[in-house]
Amino acid sequence: MSKLVHAVSGNIEPDSINRTMIHEHIVFDLSKIRGDSVSILGWSETLFAIEEELKRLLEHGFNTIVEQTNMGMGRDPERLLRISNETNMNIIAGTGYYKEGFYPAEVAALSKEQLAEKLSNDILVGMEGTHIRAGFYGEIGSSLNEITPLERKVFECVCDSHKETGAPISTHCEMGTMVVDQMAIFDSNGIDPSKVSFGHQDLNPDLSSQKEVLKWGAYIQYDTTGKNNYRSDDDRVKGILTLLDAGYEDRIMLSCDITRSTYLKAFGGHGYVSIYEKFIPMLKNNGVTDEIIEKMLVCNPRQFLAY
Ligand SMILES: [Zn+2]
Question: 258: CA distance to ligand 1 center in Å?
Answer without folding.
Answer: 10
